[in-house]
Amino acid sequence: MAKTIFEELGGKYERQGDYLIPCIALPAEEKQPIGTWGQRHLDYLKQYRKVTYTNLLTSGRLNAYLADIDRQAQERFERLIEGMKQAQGITERLKEENALEWTGRLNNIRAYAREVIEREIIYI
């Protein structure tokens, strides 16, 4: 019996009943921690960018890609918050004088920064 292209490339088959099933495995990938930004982007890829998701998964680069997206998003998020805090004059003194106002203003800044990150990095 002649070898198939899969066998010529070093592939092996496994017999299950009367059928020969190719033994296929995804390439090994280094595990990196993925935070909330990376998880959100993963959900987006799975739902709206299936081809990109499949290509990254089968090439073994998905985890590294998501970790990089997560790192970029977190850095941008922190820079945006710090910049807006300075622009709006939110200081530790305000926190001491009026903690409720400080909390409300900081929550508004975080919500705005979250929207910017989602629009510019996560959902593209």
Automatic annotation (TrEMBL):
It holds the Pfam family TnpV. This is TnpV protein. It comes from Acutalibacter muris.
